[in-house]
Amino acid sequence: MEILRTESSPNSAQVPSARVHGSRLSIGPGRIGCGTTITYLLLVDTAPSYDCRHSVLDVKVQHIATPPARRITRQAPLVQP
C-alpha cells in the first residue's frame, strides 16, 4: 500500500499524519475540526478491504470507493536498424 495523495476540505485544514504498516493505514494523532473532510488516496495491489476503528465521538467515517484503475499499455514505436 502507498499513500498517493491527501486532501482536506476546507483547503486550510491540516491533514493528520498517516503511516502505512503493511496493509494497515494508521492516521493521527491530529485534530479534525467540525465540518472538515479529510481524504487519503491509496494505491493497493489487491482488492481493498475496509475496517475502520476510531475513538472519536460524533464523527461520520466513510469509505468512498473510486472506480478501479485502468492499466495503460503503450507500444513503443517500431525502429528499423
Fold and architecture overview:
By secondary structure, the protein is an all-beta fold. It has a domain at 2-43. It has no helices and four strands. It has strands at 2-9, 18-21, 24-27, 37-43. It has a two-stranded antiparallel ribbon. Strands 2-3 form a two-stranded antiparallel ribbon. It is extended, with a radius of gyration of 18 Å. It starts with a strand and ends in a 38-residue tail after the last strand.
Would you spell out the secondary-structure blueprint of this structure?
Elements: E1 2-9, E2 18-21, E3 24-27, E4 37-43
Antiparallel strand pairs: 1-4, 2-3
Distinctive features:
two-stranded antiparallel sheet, 81 residues, mainly beta, single chain
Task: Please give a quick description of this structure.
The protein has 81 residues and is an all-beta fold.
Compute the number of helices.
0
Q: Beta-sheet strand percentage?
A: 25-35%
Strand order of the largest sheet: 1-4
Instruction: Determine the fraction of residues in helical runs and give it as a percent range.
Output: under 10%
Shape: extended
Mean pLDDT over the full residue set: 80
Report the count of strand segments.
Answer: 4
The low-confidence parts are none
Radius of gyration: 18 Å
